[in-house]
Amino acid sequence: MTRVFSGIKPTGPVQLGNLLGALRYWVTDQAEADTIFCVVDLHALTVPQDPAELRARTLELAQLLLAIGIDPAQSTLFIQSHVPEHTELSWILECTAAFGELRRMTQFKDKSDNADFVSAGLFTYPALMAADILLYDTDRVPVGDDQRQHLELSRDLAIRFNHRYGDTFVVPEASIPKIGARVMDLQEPTRKMSKSEDSPQGTILVLDDLDAVAKKIKRAVTDTETDVRFDPATKPGVSNLLSILGACTGDDPHAIAERFDRYGDLKSACAEAVVETLRPIQQRFAELSADPAGTAAILATGAEKARSLARPVLERARANLGLLPPA
Ligand code: ATP
Ligand code: LTN
Predict the structure, then answer these.
(1) Residue 3: left if φ>0, alpha if ψ -120 to 50, beta else—which one?
(2) Does residue 235 have an active-site annotation?
(3) Residue 174, SS3?
(4) What are the strands, taking DSSP E only, across the chain?
(5) Which end of the chain offers a freer environment for a tag, N or C, measured as fewer CB atoms within 10 Å?
(6) CA pair distance 174, 154, nearest whole angstrom
(7) Transmembrane stretches, by residue range (predicted)?
(8) Has 216 been annotated as catalytic?
(9) Is the minimum distance from the CB of 29 to ligand 1 under 6 angstroms?
(10) Interval 199-212 mean pLDDT
C-alpha cells in the first residue's frame, strides 16, 4: 500500500489555504493509502514561540485535524516531538545536505529577510522536514505549492544518501493539487495566505466566526477591470476568489468564471461556498474541544505506532553510515 506522510506547524490558527491546499487531501488519501499525519511542533521552534501558546496550539491543531476528518482508525496521527527519532535523523540529514543547497531555499529567504533574529534552525529546517518524511519510507507527500522546493530537497537528500551509503531511504514524491495549491491573502493577493502573517482581514481562519468569513470575502481586494476572468498574473484578486470557490465546489476556475459577470455575485457565491465548507468542521471541533483527554489518548497511540515504524528505518541509516552499534 502507498505510504503517505504530511505535516503541519502549530504556528497559528489554521487558515483556509492550509485546508484547501493540503488538509482536505489528507482526508481523502485515508481511503486509499497508509496515511501518517504529524503536528510538527519542532518546526514551530524555528521562530520564537510563547510556551503556553505553543502547548495550547499544538493540542488545538490536533483537534482540528480530527474535526476535518482525520480518522485515527485509518491514520496515524501524532506530535513530532513525541518521536525523538525525527531529531536524530535530522542531524544525519544536515550532514548530507550542502550549505549552498539550504541557502537557496526560498522559504528561508522569505522568513529571514526582515527578521530581527534568524535562528540556525530556520536555516537547517528543510533537513528536519526531510527526516520527517524519510523516516516512514514515504512514497507520497500531499502539500501546498509553497513546499515544492523542500520536497525536491528531501528527494535529493534521499538519493544522495542512498548513493553514498547504499539503499536506505524510499525517494518520496510531492503531491500538489491542481486547484487550491496556493490560496492568496484576500487583501494582498500577490502574497500567499499564511497563519503566521499578521493580516486578519486577508486571512480566513477555519475557526473564524462564519459571518466574519463572509464579510472578509466580500471585502476582498479585486482588480481594476470589471470582467470576471481566471488569470492569476493580471487579475490576482479575482483569480484567487475563483480558485477558492473552485476548491470548495470541485469545479474548474476557468469554467466558474464563465458563470459570473460581476465581482459582487462571484464574491457572494464564494462566501457561501466557504461558509458551508467550514460549518461542519466548526461543529465537530466544538465537540472535540470538550474532550481534550480523548485527543491526548489518540496522540499517545499515534506516537507509539509512529515510533515503531521510525525505529527500524533509523537503525538502517545508522548501520549503513557505519555508526558503531551499542553492545
Ligand atoms: P506559516 O505561516 O507558519 O509558515 P502556513 O500557514 O504556511 O504556516 P504550514 O503549517 O507551513 O502553514 O503548512 C501546512 C500545509 O498547508 C502545507 O502543506 C502548506 O503547503 C499548505 N499551505 C500553507 N499555506 C497555503 C496556502 N496559502 N495555499 C495553499 N496551501 C497552503
Ligand atoms: N515545512 C512544511 C511543514 C512540514 C512538512 C513536513 C510537510 C514539516 N515537515 C513533512 C510535509 C511533510 C511547511 O512549512 N508547510
Answers:
(1) beta
(2) no
(3) strand
(4) 3-8, 34-39, 75-79, 140-142, 173-175
(5) C
(6) 10
(7) none
(8) no
(9) no
(10) 97
78: helix, coil or strand?
Answer: strand
pLDDT tens digits, one per residue of 54-66: 999 999 999 999 9
Domain span at residue 219 reads 194-285
Q: Which of 131, 178, 193, 140 is nearest to 26 (CA)?
A: 140
Q: How far apart are CA 241 and CA 234, in angstroms?
A: 14
Give the whole-angstrom CA distance, residue 68 versus residue 15.
13
Q: What is the reported pLDDT for 225?
A: 83
Report the b/e string of 286-308 with b at 16+ CB within 10 A. eebeeeeeebeebbeebbebbbe
Amino acid symbol at 229: R
pLDDT at 197: 85
Contacts of 265 (CB under 8 A, 6+ apart): none
- pLDDT tens digits along 243-272: 999 999 999 999 999 999 999 999 999 999
Marked catalytic residue, from 9, 178, 195, 305: 195
Distance CA 319, CA 207 (A): 46
* For the CA of 14, the nearest ligand: 1
Regarding pTM above 0.70, the answer is yes
State the helix-helix crossing angle for 85-94 and 292-321, rounded to 10 degrees. 40
Q: Which CATH number do you get for residue 119?
A: 3.40.50.620
Task: Note whether residue 183 is domain-resident.
Answer: no
Integer Cα distance of 97 and 292 in angstroms: 39
pLDDT band for 223, please (50, 70, 90 cuts): confident
The verdict on residue 324 lying in a domain is no
Please give all residues whose beta carbon lies within 6 A of any atom in ligand 2, as ranges. 5-7, 9, 40, 43, 129, 132-133, 141, 143, 147, 150
Are residues 93 and 236 located together in one domain of the fold? no
Strand ordering across the sheet containing 3-8: 75-79, 34-39, 3-8, 140-142, 173-175
Residue 195 known to be catalytic: yes
